[in-house]
Amino acid sequence: MPEAVYRKLVDTLFSMRFPIVAMGVVCAGVAALLAAKWRDPVFTAVAILIPLVTLGRLLVMNAYQSHAEGAITRHELRRWERRYAVGSYAFAGLIAVLNMRALTFHDPLMHLITVSIVFGFGAGVVSRISARPVICVISLLMATVPTVAALAWHASLPNAIALHTQLFATEAMLVGLIAILSLNTVHHLHCSAVLHLVTQHDLALLAKFDALTGLPNRLMLRERFQDSVSALQSDGVALHYVDLDGFKSVNDLHGHPAGDALLREVARRMEKTVRAGDTVARLGGDEFVVLQTDLGHPDEAQMLARRLIRDLSAPYLIDGKSVLVAASIGIAMAADFGLDLERLLSCADCALYRSKSRGKGQFNFATSADFGKLSSAAAA
Hints:
Blueprint: H1 3-13, H2 18-38, H3 41-68, H4 74-102, H5 108-129, H6 133-155, H7 164-208, H8 218-229, E1 238-245, H9 247-254, H10 256-273, E2 279-284, E3 287-292, H11 299-313, E4 316-318, E5 321-323, E6 326-333, H12 334-337, H13 341-357, E7 363-365, H14 368-379
Parallel strand pairs: 6-7
Antiparallel strand pairs: 1-3, 1-6, 2-3, 4-5
């Protein structure tokens, strides 16, 4: 499962406070009323513990929200998920204790109220946290299984009320049956949520990445540029506009499938040539862009351009045939033209045009004359 999808599933656990507060208030209120009526220490303990558990769950949710603003690793997400699980299990256990104790008394109205709490809790966990099925199922079973057992035990007790045994046995079966049906619902909701989020994640990738090479496209290039621009210094950014020399002849001689295979190999070579912090993007056709950041000296842009030309000009083996292409590069330095992506692309494109006009395997830096031509064209 992609980490982004997993994070969204965990986010659902911490996104709804009101149901937790509402269930905590109801359960604590019922336990307090029963404690006042029966003067029972178990009811009293439950009435005290439920607000404490509810408060603890809310504190964990608030802590997660504050941490979620930054980057969270998969390992950290698992830890937060376990913390949520502890609170859910504790609450489910208290509901079970409330019902088991209530069913030791002969008070049908009290039984109706406490068993209704189980139904409400079960419906809540299935609808809210089925995206994390293990927590959901364990919480559901912790609340229902002891309640079913207590109902069955209460049905076996002698009582003068007509159909006492049959009615309580039927109620035990109903609670058990609904729990089983809820487990099936959990499976369905979990599968639907995962399918929806994975599809959403894949569509987002398709929107920002080139389908052929897997490289970032123009949209993702812009996003990467904007994400890093606030931390960048103008003299530490270079944009390389790369165009393949001889690519059209590869398509003409060997066919478009061979051309596609060549583009994929070009993408792999470029990714290996640049540093981990730099971005390689495909704009379309045989045009690529490298966003080079954190430059210590302008000469580093020249060094990268030479490496790219060298690596991309080495022979390719495509469908068992040796294929040769070269690369021409235009470079625009942010120190000269500012931190504006479109302006850098346009200036680098002008420099690329000059490189191609001078032969294969050349690179040129954009100049003030290139920027002047762009300004004149925009004014016209």
